[in-house]
Amino acid sequence: MTGTRSSTAPELVSAGFGYESRGAATLHDGLNQADLAHVLDLLDRGIIPLPAAVALLRVVLDATMDSIGYDPADGEPYNSRERAFAAQIGTAAGWLHAGRPRREATRVAFRLDARRRTARVVLAAAALARALTERAGVHRDTLFPDQTYLQHAQPSTVGHYLLSFAYPVLRDGRRLLDVFDWLNASPAGAGCVNGTRLQRDRSAVAGRLGFASVIANTRDAMWQVDGLVQLASTLASLALTQSSLAEDLEIWASPEFDYAELAEEYTRGSVLMPQKRNPYSLSMIRGTTGVLIGHVAGILAVQKSPSARSDNLIFAYGEMPAALEHARRMTELTTGVVATLTMNEGRLREALALGFSQSTDVAEQLMARSGLDYRTAYQIVGAAVRRLAAQGGSAADLTPALLDQIAGEQLGRRLAVDASTLADALDPAAIVATRVATGGAAPEPMDAMLADVATGADELAAAARQRLHAADHAEHSLVADARRVVEEASA
User: Residue 63's closest CA among 41, 96, 18?
Assistant: First the structure.
């Protein structure tokens, strides 16, 4: 072990070892697994004497957070473990170093922990996509004026709106599965940069730990960081989708809009103003997104260094587990908000009736029926909308006579707009019914999208569960193998 209590500056203990020791809780189980697999491999290859192997396996199997202590005065978590083991079994603890530097054990432990946390975020993402799909199904035909820049854009449905968030959630869930597969490659046997003469086959330890493969280049295995950048950025992307929804809902659930209502359990009452219930859950979603964006910047910043430096991963050991937990918890929170969301359908119909979201369809009908180019039709409808808005009117007040009047002013001729054609272009339900192309809000494409997202969510959840099951199976088998060696030696 390098460094002792007597030779380490207290400032380094506080700022360095203290920081690393705070990550011991997330690394502890993985370090136990890494140590068990390493000792069993040494035993299989006849490198470690059986009594020393049994002694080591015993102390590792019994190792807990409390029994190790993880005192920063001992150094980083690996050093704390060595001191605790040496205190129990003496020099036999030294066999843990055979062909393996401390950073290799920590790299393994980090990946074991991070892959499990990543799979749990994927499960949360799948549940959110499913909740969005179910709520979208309830509101497949609920009309509302979809918006851009907080202005009425076109008539659509609440279901179509909600599904626009489900698709990016699924995409980020699949990206996280890719990151899981990156994490699920073993750095064991990589040594510092060029492996060890003691181990000719790195796949044995990888298999014991449930890794799907070994990282091909030993130097890359020990120092690669690109997957962490992908992980941090994907978590931020997943959060951004939820934050956009949360920001919309905060506006729509306000009394000024009254489009939606949050379930009471996702709000918090004001202690001063009795008329207010604040959308606290939405604030947490938006705030957590900011934190996750900060994690991206932090990971990128510490990676900007020469190769083979410890600082680019030391800080990741603390930051990435925190980021993964933030992402999982906020995604579960968003799922609850969506699953209990109420839409005020009467208010949505009223908003449609009072606005001009049908204007695009009116212009398209003018173009199709009157032989106008779209720009000209657009200008005629735009002039009519401005005139009605100035008079306090709405789309319902748009008449063939008004359009003919404006056409006469702009073109010098009337259009003889058909009243039934105009009525069809002004009817929000009729407008939505025309959106039959792939991805539109009409019933047929909506049903296809609902089925597509539901299937995608189920497949995503199944893939995450399969990966978690494989990790659990590997861990249980590893512990069972270690216990069997100890029991057979004792017998």
Answer: 96
Residue 216 per-residue DSSP state: S
Report whether 262 contacts 337 (CB < 8 A). Answer: yes
What is the C-alpha separation between 204 and 38, in angstroms, rounded?
10
Residue by residue, pLDDT tens for the chain (491 residues) are: 444 455 889 999 998 898 888 889 999 999 999 999 999 999 999 999 999 999 999 999 999 999 999 999 988 899 999 999 999 999 999 999 999 998 899 999 999 999 999 999 999 999 999 999 999 999 999 999 999 998 999 999 999 999 999 999 999 999 999 999 999 999 999 888 888 888 889 999 999 999 999 999 999 998 888 999 999 999 999 999 999 999 999 999 999 999 999 999 998 877 667 677 889 899 999 999 999 999 999 999 888 888 877 777 888 888 999 999 999 999 999 999 999 999 999 999 999 999 999 999 999 999 998 889 999 999 999 999 999 999 999 999 999 999 999 999 999 998 888 899 999 999 999 999 999 999 999 999 999 999 999 999 999 999 999 999 999 999 999 999 999 999 999 88
Alpha-carbon distance values, 366 to 362, 380, 393 (Å):
6, 9, 21
Would you call 475 exposed, middle or buried from its count of C-beta atoms within 10 A (0-12, 13-18, 19+)?
A: buried
Structure tokens at 482: 């270690």
Task: Return the SS3 of 101.
Answer: coil
CA distance 332 to 206: 32
Residue positions counted in the chain: 491
Q: What is the helix (H) or strand (E) element at residue 214, kind and residue range?
A: strand 213-214
Q: How does DSSP classify residue 414?
A: -
CA angle at 412 for the pair 408 and 414, rounded to the nearest 5°: 45
Instruction: Give every CB contact of residue 269 below 8 A, 6+ residues apart in sequence.
Output: 276, 277, 278
Distance, CA of 120 to CA of 315 (rounded, Å): 22
Name the CATH superfamily housing domain 104-138+151-350+446-458: Fumarase/aspartase (Central domain) (1.20.200.10)
- The amino acid at residue 407 is A
Question: Residue 183's Cα: distance from chain center in Å?
Answer: 16
